[in-house]
Amino acid sequence: MIGWSGCHRGSPWLLIRPDDDPDVLEAADMADDFVGFKVNHVFADTNDTFNAETQEFLPEWVWQIADRRGLVIMLHMVRVRSLADPVNQRYIRQYCQRYPGAKLILAHAARGFCGRHTTEGIDTLRGLDNVYFETSAVCESEPLEAILHAFGPRRLMFGTDFPISESRGRYISIADGFAWLDEHNVFWEDQAFAAPTRVGIESLLALRRACQSMSLKDADIERIFRHNARQLLSIDSPPNGRRTQQTYNQAKQIIPGGTQLWLIRKKLTHCYLAEMPTIPGVFDICWCVTFFAVSHTQ
Question: Which of 161, 175, 248, 292 is the most exposed place for a label (fewest CB within 10 A)?
Answer without folding.
Answer: 175
